[in-house]
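Record type: monomer structure entry
Structure origin: computed from sequence
Chain ID: A
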Amino acid sequence: MLPEFKVAQLRHFVWVAELKGFHLAAEKAHRTQPTISLSVRELESKLGEALFERRNSRTAKTELTPFGQAFLPRAKELLAHHDRIAEDMALLAEHKTGHLRLASVPSIASRFLPGLLLDFIGDSELHVSMFDDNSRAVLKMVEDQQVDFGIASLFDEQERSEKHYTPVWQDHLGVVCLKDHPLTASRELHWRELKPYRLIRNGTSSLLQGSEAESLLAHSQYYISNMISLIAMLEAGLGITTLPWYAFPQGNTQLTFIPLHTPVVARGIGIVRLNNKSLTPPAQALVDFILARHSD
């Protein structure tokens, strides 16, 4: 049966060999000399061979046996491997290393995640892969375990069956149009005021389903799923659209956002993860960080 080595015994052996004495090794280990001697004897018992030459003189330096000389580099190799793993796991537990994968709806990915990730990652060596897409696509990536967790909306109870949802942000729908558009005369809008104008549907237009403004969707002439393309079409004057406030591009000088007061449509956005599946330490740390920053 192969011997099972204890890390402490290997470390004591290496220190005795390198420092040429049990007394100095005991000082380094902050142990008594008899403790170090016992540790080495137990290691020799497991190996079935002596590691050090036996000498009667207390002043003589401790020397390795030929077997000990052969074992020393292997003991060092085992300790180095152990220490690398221990360090890697410690860094992983402190979310300072590893690979974090998350998916988010574009509004949160562009408005909140840059600052959150900058503060969270700091000077660590944590690798991050982030995917931005609509809520349906984010939920699918969570289901397929392509990401550690997602940031999205849940539209029906069925979507909660295999997922744990933690609400974080609350968003409200409004109308986006050019700053010189006739609708900008109003501070808030009723959905009927949109009927005379060309409506461009987008990925968030489904929020109007089930509301009194649902009929607007059937009469929309265009559908654009990509946010960059949508903004370009709005800036060109192709029409108007509805967007949640967080999805409105900050700093845009050509467009404006007008809240929709009838109907009032709210969108909840939160963290979505699979039930009964633990997150990696970096992923759990980021979830805790987000909740500490943004939860009410």
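Annotation 1: The chain has two domains: 7-93, 102-268.
Annotation 2: The domain at 7-93 is CATH 1.10.10.10 (Arc Repressor Mutant, subunit A).
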